[in-house]
Amino acid sequence: MTEPDATAAGEPLPQGRHAADYGPGEVPEIRVRGAEPEPDLAHDPTHGPAHDAERDPGHDAFAPPGGTIAVVRPPDPFVRPRPEFTATAEVPADERSTENRLLARLLGERRLTLDLRRRDRFWAWTGTFVVTLLAAVARLWNLGRPSTLVFDETYYVKDGFTLGELGYAAQWPEDPNAAFEAGDVLTYLEKAAYVVHPPVGKWMIWLGMEAGGGATSAFAWRLGSAVVGVLAVFLLVRIARRLFSSSLMGVVAGLLLAVDGEAIVHSRTALLDQFLMFWVLVAFGCLVLDREQARRRLASRVGAILDAGGAVGLYGPRLGFRWWRVGAGVSLGLACGTKWSGLWFVAVFGIVTVLWDVSARKRAGIGRWWEDALTADAVRGFLAIVPTAVVVYVATWWSWFRSPGAYLRQWAADHPGEGVTWLPDPLRSLVEYHRQMWEFHTGLSSEHNYASHPLGWIIQWRPTSFYWEKHAAGEGGCPADTVHGCAEAVTSLGNPLLWFLGAVAILVTVSLGIRLRDGRALAVLSGTVAGWLPWFLYAPPVADRTIFTFYSIVFTPFVVLTLVYPMVVALERTEHRPGRSRAVAAITVVVTLVVAVSVAFYPLWSGMQVPYDYWRSIMRLDSWV
């Protein structure tokens, strides 16, 4: 579709002047009536949700019967040809408003009708409730089993407890776990411990202990993780519903997260990575809401301009303050306050939200859409997200600031003239603390039986064993007639079928995203990019840091979204067409098999005692043991 020629289809340029003679501030606007009919979207084979959501303006038009109203300007080398929108005054009475036609382009017809369909409203809340309840049962049932500190709980539970007691993590006497597990939790020393992660995750563990009855209960140690795990399932249902404009597929996404092994194990274990995952997911949800709100504002303001008889030129309207971006900044600050790897999500999510704005302004018919998005949206987005995240991150150290006995709290006073001297002493001490933390993380290289290369994470090749215990027949509750005794295990192993299909879905999603020019593909892949790919910088051949597969919990929700995305596209492309029943059947089979695999693996995720032969039959690969 090309710009109409003013001299051929409308009024000529003013006498004696040519297009090239006009400057940026005096571009002539010549209205031209064409004769392009409105496309029949109901029978258009290129019309569908995947196209509605991310359609190229060059292949789309929302014109009234009888013609379009176009604005003709001198050629601009930076502007791609695009259709123009007709003001409401020029549209027949039975046509939709300019704003609604813009909304259909920016959000898609499915999103606009999502809350109008009874079936969607049913699945929206009934399905969400059922899936969230399932997640709660899988995570809270017998949460106190095993009753001992498992894996890195030995650090984070005790750090969280003393953080609440003293305001900082304290040291413990040698071999304190037996006494702590027996309920003697006050053996800590009032001397600061050197901890290498920020405090947010440990504060959340402490909150769980307070709500669960205190540090003497293994149930209480893990309650914070379990609650966060249940909330993550709820959030994913709502996020996927809005992102895919489908209540049913939102429920499918939540169900897959509810039954995944990584999600279950981390919900039943007091480690930090669960809280990192949660705050990252909250930030992503904020940005998805911001995307919709920004596009609704853009449609409203562009529509108002056109309805008033104006025209959208090279630059579009400003969208005002965007609070959801501030919410994303707060969440990302809390993510970084849990683990520093949250920084990668700040960068990746920031790029994604800017690309969403670029796409929206392009579709709204704005001339220099790329420049407009960068100047009007990207700068403001940066200021809303990044400084907010920095301020929130520093604020998470509040108890360290107010505790004179905290680790390195008095470093500046003891080392005058050293460090970043222009900072106030408390901040100078905090910077020194961070320098030491950085040296620890970058220099961490030690042998560990469960260390793994990130290449295998996406198929859970080398999972991490958090706990394993074997009992002989007749001992430790193992029935006397059991042939080879019993085993208890907590293995951070994602549902093998889900993760294998998720790995395949990444390739499919990349292909579909490019072919359909669908921004949803970029969205679902963003978390995996931020949570997985950076770890290759710490693995051979680049480096040799000790890293583990269980770090993949942070991008587990995005693996689920990536697996669901091809299902969504399949349903959209077969709606009211042959092949619909096959698509539904395939999705049903996949979801059923994933749930069945989770049922088989659940005892190995939750520390249940099972016959040793059962454990060995489930742990098929030697790399899992």
UniProtKB/TrEMBL annotation:
Primary location recorded for the protein, binned into one broad class: membrane
Family that this chain belongs to: Belongs to the glycosyltransferase 39 family.
InterPro entries linked: ArnT-like_N, PMT-like, PMT_4TMC
Membrane topology recorded in Swiss-Prot or TrEMBL: Multi-pass membrane protein
Compartment annotation: Cell membrane; Endomembrane system
Entry keyword Secreted: no
TM spans (from-to): 122-141, 219-237, 244-265, 271-290, 302-321, 341-360, 381-401, 497-514, 521-538, 550-571, 583-605
Domain of life: Bacteria
Xref: Pfam families: PMT, PMT_4TMC
Pathway entry: Protein modification; protein glycosylation
Annotated stretches, region: Disordered: 1-83
EC category name: transferase
EC number: 2.4.1.-
Described function: Protein O-mannosyltransferase that catalyzes the transfer of a single mannose residue from a polyprenol phospho-mannosyl lipidic donor to the hydroxyl group of selected serine and threonine residues in acceptor proteins.
Organism: Isoptericola luteus
Keywords of the record: Cell membrane, Glycosyltransferase, Membrane, Transferase, Transmembrane, Transmembrane helix
Ranges of compositional bias, category Basic and acidic residues: 28-59
Protein name: Polyprenol-phosphate-mannose--protein mannosyltransferase
UniProt domain Protein O-mannosyl-transferase C-terminal four TM: residue ranges: 427-624
Domain ArnT-like N-terminal: 210-293
Keyword flag Transferase: yes
